[in-house]
Amino acid sequence: VLAAAPLTSATPATAGSKAYICGDLAAKAIASGGLFKAPAGCVLPFGVMEALVAKAGKSDIVASSIAAAEGAAAASDYANLDAACESIRAALKGIEIPPEVC
Known about the structure:
By secondary structure, the protein is mainly alpha-helical. It has helices spanning 12-15, 17-31, 48-55, 59-74, 78-92, and strands at 5-6, 42-43.
């Protein structure tokens, strides 16, 4: 089972560069002894979202909507980009995240 992990454990390989940088900042805030603060957080490693989407039976609609978004972005077609992103949001909305992931 893939599970959420503390943000401070993120690496570029497991969660991407943005999560890693946020985790590094959070770790530095902890080590600063209170000189500055960063919000706590968690990270879902690569593969978690895809597994949940597949379990919900929404892989095809998400994949086609991502392809549509990429095509619209490449063509600077912002109306269709917005529509594709809304389709992705609608497909992801309501997907249950099992307690063992959190």
